[in-house]
Design a protein that fits this description.
globular; 326 residues; alpha+beta; Beta Polymerase, domain 2; 5-stranded mixed β-sheet; 2 domains; 9% strand; disordered C terminus; 7 strands
């Protein structure tokens, strides 16, 4: 691929070319690359067309090392992050390049699919479809796969990204009702194969046949999903998960890090904090305030998880955060 100057790239062109680049690098090194979220969702009419901030690529877990090494050889490197940011994002690695105004997110799994990540990748890869981006042919999920990815992505962090409510309501109001019996049966089959019958229940129920809900304490990954989605995806819920999952001897340190972040880490994750000690103090207080305001959500998430309930508030009619927008 020809060298690209950042000054001549629009944001949309940069992301399209990044999609083409990661596909080309994968092909050159024998790595299968499935481009998820943005291009596939827009192509299948699951969200309005908009410019993405990054290129999301799903690869088999066994190929992550090969893919990272190949992209690093092309000048890409992992974005420097705080200790907490690395603990939060265990499903992907974010790579940046000084000559590109966008990121590449390499995923080895997609949150909400609870089957083995390698099995999920194979199931999605077998159903891939071609799409032309950045002047090159790339692979995207088929429509059933894209529906599951879009729904799971929307359910995961509605408190952080308000448009997710609109996106899941779009599925419920304009996408799923238009599917015929064959398409709905296919969607049910894929949900079972990828392990998202419980996690995707809020948007699948009523459209496809689902088995009885899995009780609590049967699948630890499902328990964590229920906690996170029941808390609306607020960052404080992620802190709770990390602290409670850590060995007892490490919990005091993790709690302190959550409450009083080191200055370097705090500024790295919150670049909006201005210079100086006063701005830093205000940033710390604002962060603690957000954590306190999120406490009721955490309680709701913990209770829902312990009771084996998958939160449905985002798909409930009348929820202002769930209303579809034109």
């Amino acid at each position: 691929m020809a060298r690209v100057e950042p000054s001549v790239l629009s944001a949309a062109d940069a992301v399209d070319l990044a999609h083409a680049l990661v596909t080309a690098v994968g092909e050159a090194h024998g790595v299968r690359v499935l481009l998820i979220k943005g291009p596939g969702a827009a192509h299948h009419g699951l969200r309005p067309v908009r410019t993405s901030a990054d290129a999301d690529a799903l690869v088999s877990p066994a190929d992550l090392g090969t893919m990272r090494a190949a992209l690093e050889a092309a000048g890409w490197h992992e974005r420097e992050g705080s200790e907490l940011s690395h603990l939060f994002a265990t499903h992907s690695v974010t790579l940046i390049h000084p000559g590109w105004p966008c990121d590449i997110d390499l995923h080895t799994r997609f949150p909400g699919f609870l089957r083995d990540p390698a099995e999920v990748f194979e199931a999605l890869w077998e159903r891939r479809e071609p799409l032309t981006l950045g002047g090159a042919q790339v692979s995207i999920p088929d429509r059933a796969s894209a529906i599951l990815i879009a729904g799971l992505h929307a359910l995961r962090t509605p408190a952080q990204t308000t448009r997710h409510g609109a996106e899941v309501r779009l599925l419920l109001a304009r996408v799923l009702p238009t599917l015929d019996d064959a398409a709905l049966s296919d969607l049910a089959t894929l949900a079972a194969a990828t392990g998202c019958q419980d996690t995707g229940r809020p948007f699948l129920e009523g459209f496809v046949p689902l088995p009885p809900s899995t009780p609590a304490r049967v699948d630890p990954a499902l328990d964590l999903w229920r906690l996170r989605t029941g808390a609306g995806g607020v960052p404080a819920a992620l802190h709770w998960q990390i602290i409670t999952a850590a060995p007892w001897r490490e919990r005091p340190r993790m709690l302190w890090v959550a409450l009083w972040r080191p200055e370097k880490d705090l500024r790295r994750d919150h670049p909006e904090i201005g210079p100086g000690r006063l701005a830093l103090a205000r940033g710390r207080l604002a962060r603690l305030g957000r954590g306190l305001r999120g406490a009721p959500r955490i309680v709701a998430g913990v209770l829902g998880s312990r009771l084996g309930r998958t939160d449905r508030s985002l798909t409930r009619p009348g929820n202002p955060d769930a209303e579809a927008r034109p």
